[in-house]
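Translate sequence into structure tokens.
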Amino acid sequence: MMHFRGLVVAIAVCLPSFGAASDVLLSVSGDVASPPQGATWALTSEDLRGMPATVFETETIWTEGPQVFEGVSLQALLETVGASGRMLRATAANDYAVSIPVSDAVEGGPIIAYSRNGETMPLRDKGPLWIVYPYDDNEKYKTEEFYSRSIWQLNRLEVIGEE
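Result follows.
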């Protein structure tokens, strides 16, 4: 046993920071402006809720009765990240992916919903993010083409120049 008189030994333990990475709900990459930090846009719930909110009521083929969705419009999100591509590759937590034309990102178009009926959506119930079109507001959205783009458990968007 060694004795150290009058010597204070400080040991720094470096643990990984789990807060930042685990709080990311949506990563956006591809043909976008340079993000503030890192190689991709890493958006938290606070980031998404800090953008202008869009709220609409609509029925879906996956739920019963009218539902109130709140989120950031796809148009506003793409403007925020400086998207310049023509297609989006939207990917869910289970790696299911769909292609969405950037031309869908219009006023009165789809939102990236972060709440349904005033509640956050858990992963087991199509959350935490779901691309939802205002089906009741526009008949063209009530087609298999648009239903197939309504991806839930969304966690990644890649903006692609050509597909």
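Note: The longest helix spans residues 74-80.
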